[in-house]
Amino acid sequence: MNRKLIYVLLSLFFCCLSVSAQGATKSDLQLQAEGEHAKGHIATARYLYIRSFEDYVSNGQLQQGVWCATKATALYYNENFYKEAFDLLRRVDQTIEAKAQGTDKDALHYMTTKERLQMYMKLRKTASALDQLNIMERQVGAVHNDSLSNDLLYNKAIYYYSFGQNQKGNAVFKEMSDKLTAVGDYDKVDQVYQTLIANGRKSNNASMVAQSYSNYIEWKDSVNALKKAAEIDALNQRIAANEATIADKDSSLSSRQVIIIGLIVLAVALAAALIFGGLVLLRFITTTRKQKKTINELKENNALKAKFISNISAQLDPSLQRLDSKIPEVKALKDFSEHIQTLAQLDTNNDEVELEEVQVQSYCEAMMEEIRGKVKDNVELIVKAPKMSAMINKEYVSHILRHLLNNAAIYTPEGGHITLDFKKRSAHTQQFLVLDTGCGIPEEKREDVFKPFLEIKDLSQGDGLGLPICKQMAQKMNGDLSIDASFTKGTRFVLDLRA
């Protein structure tokens, strides 16, 4: 077979090894080498391929490096620089021995051995070429890779054809085509045959063309028979599947009838359940409407009561103002009247609470300063507030803190301390905390202190409306006022405010 034909055929399966190496990201040096090669600058391309090999090896990319080295080798021996080519391959093999391990080592050596095979075939050294082919066979046996196995078969065929052993070449070529045919890769086999015939014609090898064409026709007939057999088998499988489906449908028909009857019964039951559910829902809606009406009436009555009480308190206020506030009972009655009006206003007022910006530290210090003259001896007043601003309803917050601090001043004994603390809990949540070291509030009474009119008391000792008013103010600000149950060394009130 013509040498030109051999090298063309070699290129067809050379990609089996080179694809994996080129599939990785190419370095700039490799891209430059390929560019120079395409321009026909062989010496420059060869130099850049060797540089690429060295660069890849230094980065631990052996496969790409060996691929570049084999490209440089081919550029050497294609210009008959065989010594340089053999020297480069010897250097590559030494690198593989030093860097690679296991089956990777055999796969990389396969690439260099194949280059030696090409050179010996070009030099027409039959024995040396056969030695390389045997080495390649041992390497493939160690690697167990299908791509290398196919490449080895192809190189065997080329070797036999190159040295006039056409019968062996045909046998190996048939083995290769049978392997590809077995896995259904008909297009690749067809391409190989077409290329073989075309290149035989180009080399004017009539016997090669005739034999290849004969083998191709024989293979084509066998493939057509395989395809028809596969189509018939697939059709038979479809027929069998359809028959099984029909049989299954026939066998399940009676069970489906039972299911249909069951579904009808279930539908009737569901319809009855829906009717019953509709009646229940209608009754529920009617009851809910009545409850809403009752609630609205209660709200109206509550508002009217609050308004009525507020009016009575307002009417009594002029008379109370004429009485002497120095009398404890009169002062208690005036405070009670004021508290009643405040509660009534909170119940009836649905306006949105307005916020204003305050400097927290100075505001808290001013609130604490109000009780300085009211505390017992040696009571320490502590303010823990950061230098920051906050948006609050100053009227309500001041009322609440003033009431809590005044209570703390009353109940904190000598030598105790009262603390006003501010904490920013989140972007939309903040707290004022008032704590004292007084006797504390019993656990069973903590919930009751926020409920108005819970018990009848002597007004001169307080009307019990101060904390309920503070609670309602806190709720008007979308917050809450509570007692910290975890604090046991006195009382700690927590005013939660949410933006």
Written account of the structure:
The protein is α+β, with helices and mostly antiparallel strands. It has 15 helices and 7 strands. The protein has helices at 3-23, 28-39, 42-58, 62-77, 82-99, 102-122, 126-143, 146-162, 166-182, 186-202, 206-321, 328-348, 360-369, 394-411, 466-476; strands at 356-359, 380-384, 389-392, 417-426, 429-436, 480-483, 491-498. A 5-stranded mixed beta sheet has the order 2-4-5-7-6, covered by helices on one side. Strands 1-3 form a two-stranded antiparallel sheet. The two termini are 92 Å apart.
How would you describe the shape? elongated
What is the averaged pLDDT score? 82
Please bin the fraction of helical residues. Answer: over 70%
Structural class: alpha+beta
Widest sheet, order of strands: 2-4-5-7-6
Largest sheet composition: 5 strands, mixed
The end-to-end distance, rounded to whole angstroms, is 92 Å
Q: N-to-C SSE series?
A: HHHHHHHHHHHHEHEEHEEHEE
